[in-house]
């Protein structure tokens, strides 16, 4: 049923809350797990972008190791740049993801949607079901 999971991650508390659920679903359905971290660098200077890239690299490495440590071996990491909700949905479409599991935190900075969360935008745009973890 859920052969490919997409787990967009950041440093939020909600990401850590979603991790056990991702692990449970992956074990239950023997799913391939794709970790995704997206950097929207439009408001950052070059030094901040490089620092953010390093932070994301470490975050993905740590999350992948954490999943493997609890027995999830079929894990791949993906790093992209762009507008977060659009990139998440594009990756879900490209990889033919069957379920996106994500935390509820994160605000879009798109004009006219300043108070809309990334998770709401992903729900609106997603090519597959989305499970949002508070």
- Uncertain residue ranges: 107-113
Strand order of the largest sheet: 3-2-1-4-5
Element string (H = helix, E = strand): EHEHEHEHE
Report how far apart the termini are.
23 Å
Instruction: Give the DSSP E fraction (strand runs of 2 or more residues).
Output: 15-25%
What is the molecular shape?
globular
Instruction: Give the radius of gyration.
Output: 14 Å
What does this structure look like?
The chain is α/β, with parallel strands linked by helices. It has four helices and five strands. It has helices at 13-29, 46-69, 84-94, 118-125, and strands at 4-8, 32-39, 75-81, 99-103, 130-133. It has a five-stranded parallel beta sheet with strand order 3-2-1-4-5, with helices on both faces. α3 packs parallel to α4 (118-125). It is globular, with a radius of gyration of 14 Å. 31% of the residues are buried.
Detail the topology: elements first, then pairings.
Layout: E1 4-8, H1 13-29, E2 32-39, H2 46-69, E3 75-81, H3 84-94, E4 99-103, H4 118-125, E5 130-133
Short description:
It is built from 4 helices and 5 strands; from the N terminus they run βαβαβαβαβ. It is of the alpha/beta class. The longest helix is centred in the middle third of the chain and has 24 residues, at 46-69.
Which short descriptors sum up this protein?
5 strands, alpha/beta, 5-stranded parallel beta sheet, 45% helix, 4 helices, 134 residues, 22% strand
């Amino acid at each position: 049923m859920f052969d490919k999971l997409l787990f967009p991650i950041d440093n939020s508390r909600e990401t850590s809350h979603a991790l056990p659920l991702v692990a449970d679903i992956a074990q239950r359905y023997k799913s391939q797990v794709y970790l995704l971290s997206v950097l929207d660098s439009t408001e950052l200077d070059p030094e901040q972008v490089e620092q953010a890239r390093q932070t994301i690299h470490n975050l993905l490495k740590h999350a992948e190791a954490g999943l493997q440590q609890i027995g999830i071996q079929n894990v791949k990491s993906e790093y992209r740049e762009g507008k977060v909700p659009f990139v998440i949905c594009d990756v879900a479409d490209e990889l033919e993801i069957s379920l996106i599991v994500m935390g509820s935190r994160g605000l879009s900075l798109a004009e006219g949607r300043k108070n809309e969360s990334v998770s709401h935008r992903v729900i609106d745009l997603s090519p597959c079901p989305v499970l949002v973890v508070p």
